[in-house]
Write a structure and sequence with these properties.
79 residues; mainly alpha
Length: 79
């Protein structure tokens, strides 16, 4: 499974999204599920899935799927 697919699955599970949601183009607060509470659940789920720990600034800056993907890649995690 690709890194993109793994992260997409985390977004779908953590934010309880339908499979047809365009996760790859999703941005913070684009949908009701990605509010501040959903954001913290998402951050925790990403940390668990990839065994990483985000800095506070990273948590604040995680504003889209693409940003989250770049952050995960920044930990040296690849396809």
């Amino acid at each position: 499974m690709s890194l993109n697919d793994r992260l997409r699955g985390v977004f779908v599970d953590a934010l309880q999204l339908d499979d047809d949601v365009d996760v790859e183009n999703l941005k913070y607060r684009d949908i009701d599920e990605w509010d501040s509470v959903g954001h913290m659940a998402l951050v925790a789920a990403i940390e668990d899935e990839f065994d990483v720990q985000f800095e506070t600034e990273q948590v604040i800056d995680m504003s889209s799927f693409k940003v989250a993907l770049d952050m995960v890649k920044g930990f040296g995690i690849s396809e």
